[in-house]
Amino acid sequence: MDVVGRVRIVDTRGMNLPVVLLRMGLGLLTSVALAGCGKQVPASSPPQESDPAGPGDEEQLRPGEVANTYVGHGDEEGAEDGDDDADDDADDADDDDAERSASGDAPKSADDGRLDAVELLALANAALDEVLDPYAARVVTPLLPTEWPSTSGTVMVLAYPLTPLESGVTRYTLSSPSYRVTLAVGDGTVTTESLGKKPKRLGTIEKARERSDDPIHQGEQALVDVVAGRKTPEKASRILRHYIEWADGHGAVGKDAEARAAAFFKALRG
């Protein structure tokens, strides 16, 4: 007996008709039952995409990738504390200004429109270059007040010409100042004044190289602050005493400059 597909073929030779029909009926029922019990394959459906990084799972990186990590500046409470600290600093600064104002020392303002000592000296030297040979040796004093106590809001410098000695270039003949440059600390107005065509010989000096850390630079800025109304003379008196050191250490130049700003130096020396 052979089976082809799901239908059984029965060899009926040598069988009577009822038996044949019975067997054929049983075979047909058996085929139907087998067909009904066969495993059914469900219809294919599109593949479902899985979430590679569900809640709480770490993202899987491909080789060569680097995870970007955000680094914060502290929690919100910390940020609020920082703002409070900044406000406290501002309040402290206001208190300091109030104390200085009460003591008569006006607070220095960066945007008050007045020039500082470095800017004023640059203006003075530029003005001297226009009336003197810019390559000729000279000595220029620090900024000095035009009067003391200051009422005009101006400072001045004095220019002393130097003549090289024939014996060498390191020593010079010092002459009395040939020009005075007056500068307004408010707007930088420059006035250049000649002090005579016949300078007086004051002696000989050896010109020293200027030091960038010379304390007189602090004294000049303190003087400008006083003349500009940012400080009182009493508050600046300690720093202004650098002028005494400068005058005592610069021989004939210091002596002559002190004589030309006598009220100022007299107040400093007490």
List the helices and strands and how they pair.
Layout: E1 2-4, E2 7-9, H1 17-36, H2 76-102, H3 117-131, E3 138-140, E4 144-145, E5 154-165, E6 168-175, E7 179-184, E8 190-194, E9 201-206, H4 216-227, H5 233-240, H6 242-248, H7 251-260, H8 262-269
Antiparallel strand pairs: 1-2, 3-5, 4-5, 5-6, 5-7, 6-9, 7-8
Helix pairs in contact: 4-5, 4-6
Description:
- The structure is a single chain.
- It contains 8 helices and 9 strands.
- It has helices at residues 17-36, 76-102, 117-131, 216-227, 233-240, 242-248, 251-260, 262-269; strands at residues 2-4, 7-9, 138-140, 144-145, 154-165, 168-175, 179-184, 190-194, 201-206.
- Strands 3, 4, 5, 6, 7, 8 and 9 form a 7-stranded antiparallel β-sheet that branches.
- Strand 7 (179-184) and strand 8 form a beta hairpin.
- Helix 4 (216-227) packs antiparallel against helix 5 and helix 4 crosses helix 6.
- The radius of gyration is 51 Å and the shape is globular.
- The protein starts with a strand and ends with a helix.
- The relative contact order is 0.10.
- Mean pLDDT is 73; it is low at 1-12 and 37-111.
